[in-house]
Write a structure and sequence with these properties.
heterodimer, A: alpha/beta, Rossmann fold, B: alpha+beta, 60s Ribosomal Protein L30, Chain: A, Phosphoribosyl-aminoimidazole Synthetase, Chain A, domain 2, 2 domains, 7-stranded mixed beta sheet, 5-stranded mixed beta sheet, about 30% helix
Chain lengths: ~375, ~350
């Protein structure tokens, strides 16, 4: 398959691994931002091919993982209202808020529908004029344009029964928050290819300059990731700190300008609470006042969520690259995909779920444990 | 499979009194297995029978019989490559075939929703008759119920089947042995993608059609060719991965597969890339995996090819003792293949 097969060629991967080994002199910690990259790294065992001096840290780029429990509580409260059809992307429906999930709400009678595109929710609103249709607006700069388009369409169609619960988040403010932390150990970043497909990568250069970190825009196939790591290590070893583009088959410096305009037209930046990290200045997208009629938070009166952080869960530290999933005391024991204590276990793209799915402990004959988690 | 249905205990945040059945309990993953183990098998099943095999093996008057049942709630009712009628007949035929049984008799139960078009019902029934004829089975009894409008989804169908085992082979997970080769009879994942594409209005060019097919003929051909089949399992809801994890657990063996050898058509791969699915977990309805001693491999491959299958060797049984499935990735690394919790859900971005 074009654009896929050539990025999964084992021999080319071996060459990259040899080359990374050759140029790596010192120890470096590199964070991949996106959950899709984390998933590919663990699925293909890319971290195991790297020299010991390189540590891959799994970043906060999984939209499901970083959605705060209070927002999921709001979603569940909306979904349980009589007469509401609540539309969400698929992997969000399993994620726990304070005490429940959208799937559990559905089993309790809520009309929760999985949509593949935000525009489907507009069609549902047209087909169900007597129902209130609410779209759960989740994701980063990747999903924001399509969600913006859904709101614009609803306005053009003069729909009175469509609204959006926006918890959209922006990646660059999260990167600077991680770098501002005195405990930060990140030496370089693999930036998320899909986010940059929309936004371009000019906004990353000031970050690279200010903090002296290389940032390489990277794709999602095994060879993309190996090449991105190679470019990052090459910069680190020669003391450079600039933005480079590995994912040039999809990303340009200026990005997708019409998509950016859509985002600007419909949304304004606001402070956003990130699960496990806390509030980050100007890291969220909320509807502009001119689209206020479509804001679910205006249209419905919701109770206050009393979300309590799950104390045993270290997903916040994992999202900041401080810990790996298997370093958590409850990983794979009290915390599993069926009984997740934190969102990094429940989302398919969460680091904990990826480790659980692909790297459980293996019991050797005689009962000794061969740990293939690390 | 005798118990293939829906859910068990939900999340840790809920006391048992609050737990409810969720769709994920019917998704073929871990939640469904918990429900079957903790509730159905514990209370219902005579310990003498292996309720987790595709069918129960019973004896009557000296004859060795396989007995199974399955219910079909597919949406949409008609999909590229089949419909709920052919699916209901072949699903049960295939469960019998997985025990090495020749399908003989089937029952059919219809639960029809008020307002359902009789013309559609006629199409489904004709399709069932053709499917039974092709599989060499006879539909001999049935039942009809009509539920109020809004309380069904057009039509639900249950089938049960009896087959006869007239050979001495014991085909079950306990016979899986170190060194066995693991084969599949064709490319995986087409049924799940065809049904989902049809339900969600996604179209692919060329269209992806279901792999739905009766499996009695290839299994009987293997037995008649003298292949010493150790175990068979049809790949249904949870896909190849779930079937292999079930068999690893039932046999206590470590099953090692090679990602490069797993046959997936370009159309299914493309659809999975778009949706963020892993083809290993996508449903099939005409695919099975067989465990054989290596000496019988050539005969098995030639026999399957002669009945128009496209068999592939996907791995082998390790002599290590861990009851799990490992896959050698394209990159040459090794990882564990796990059962999913519930259904696969499309990724966000």
């Amino acid at each position: 398959m074009k654009y896929i097969d050539e990025y999964r060629v084992p021999r080319a991967a071996e060459q990259y691994v040899r080359e990374i080994r050759r140029i790596t002199r010192r120890s470096w910690s590199i964070m991949e931002i996106c959950g899709g990259q984390t998933h590919a790294i663990i699925k293909y065992g890319i971290d195991r091919l790297l020299p010991k001096q390189l540590r891959l840290l799994h970043g906060p780029g999984c939209p499901v993982c970083i959605t705060a429990a209070e927002h999921i509580d709001q979603a569940i409260e909306l979904a349980l209202l009589p007469n509401v059809i609540f539309c969400s992307f698929g992997d969000m429906v399993r994620v726990p808020g304070t005490s429940s999930t959208l799937l559990v709400a559905r089993a309790a009678g809520a009309d929760v529908r999985v949509v593949y595109s935000p525009l489907e929710s507009v069609a549902i609103a047209q087909q169900n004029p007597r129902h209130e249709v609410v779209l759960f607006g989740i994701g980063f700069e990747t999903t924001a344009p399509a969600i913006a388009m859904a709101v614009q369409q609803a306005q053009m169609l003069n729909l009175k029964n469509f609204s959006l619960l926006s918890v959209l988040a922006l990646v660059p403010p999260a990167i600077t928050t991680l770098l501002d932390d005195p405990a930060n150990t990140i030496d370089g970043f693999l930036a998320a290819g899909h986010v940059c497909t929309v936004m371009g990568y000019r906004e990353y250069q000031p970050i690279a300059d200010k903090y002296g970190v290389p940032i390489v825009v990277t794709g999602f196939e095994p060879l993309d990731i190996l090449q991105g790591i190679h470019m990052t290590v090459a910069q680190l070893e020669r003391g450079a700190a600039t933005v480079e583009n590995q994912y040039s088959r999809a990303v340009t410096a200026e990005g997708n300008l019409p998509a950016q305009k859509l985002i600007r037209d419909v949304f304004q930046t606001v402070d956003r609470n990130w699960r496990g990290i806390g509030s980050i200045n100007q890291s969220g997208l909320a509807l502009r006042p001119s689209f206020g009629d479509f804001d679910a938070l205006h249209r419905f009166t919701l109770g206050r969520s009393h979300s309590q952080p799950e104390l045993r869960c270290i997903s916040g530290l994992i999202l900041q690259g401080r810990n790996k999933p298997h370093e958590c005391a409850v990983f794979g024991a009290e915390c599993t995909p069926e009984h997740p204590l934190g969102a990094t276990m429940v989302s398919g793209e969460g680091a904990c779920a990826a480790y659980f799915r692909y790297r459980q402990q293996k019991i050797e004959p005689g009962g000794s444990i061969k740990d293939i988690t690390k | 499979m005798i118990f293939a249905g829906s859910n068990g205990p939900g999340s840790s945040q809920h006391s048992p009194g609050q737990q409810k059945i969720m769709l994920a309990h019917g998704g073929g993953g871990r939640l469904m297995h918990q429900l079957i183990d903790d509730l159905f098998i514990t209370i219902l099943v005579d310990p003498e029978y292996d309720a987790k095999h595709d069918a129960a093996i019973c004896t009557a008057g000296g004859a060795k019989l396989a007995f199974t049942t399955d219910s079909f709630v597919v949406d949409p009712l008609f999909f590229p490559g089949g419909d709920i009628g052919s699916l209901a007949v072949w699903g049960t035929v295939n469960d019998l075939a997985m025990c090495g049984a020749r399908p003989l008799y089937l029952s059919v139960g219809f639960i029809i929703e008020e307002g359902f078009a009789i013309e559609q019902l006629q199409r489904i029934v004709r399709s069932m008759r053709a499917a039974a004829d092709r599989a060499g089975a006879r539909i001999v009894t049935g039942d009809t119920k009509v539920v109020e409008f809004g309380k069904g989804h057009g039509v639900f169908i249950n089938t049960a089947g009896i087959g006869r085992i007239d050979h001495g082979l014991e085909i079950n997970p306990a016979r899986i042995a170190p060194g066995d080769v693991i084969i599949v009879n064709g490319d995986i994942g087409r049924h799940g993608i065809a049904v989902m594409a049809s339900r969600e209005g996604l179209s692919f060019e060329p269209p992806i059609t279901s792999d739905l097919a009766p499996l009695a003929a290839p299994v009987m051909a293997l037995i008649e060719a003298g292949v010493n089949i150790h175990c068979l399992r049809d790949l249904t809801r949870g896909g190849l991965a779930t079937a292999l994890v079930e068999l690893a657990q039932a046999s206590g063996r470590e099953l090692c597969i090679n990602e490069r050898e797993i046959p997936v058509s370009n159309g299914v791969r493309a659809a999975c890339e778009i949706l963020g699915f892993d083809p290993l977990y996508v449903a099939n309805e005409g695919r099975f995996t067989a465990f054989l001693p290596p000496d019988d491999l050539d005969t098995a491959l030639a026999t399957l090819r002669a009945v128009d299958a496209e068999p592939h060797v996907i791995g082998a049984v390790s002599d290590a003792g861990s009851p799990l499935v490992t896959v050698k990735t394209l990159m040459g690394t090794e990882r564990v293949v796990d059962m999913l919790s519930g259904e696969q859900l499309p990724r966000i971005c």
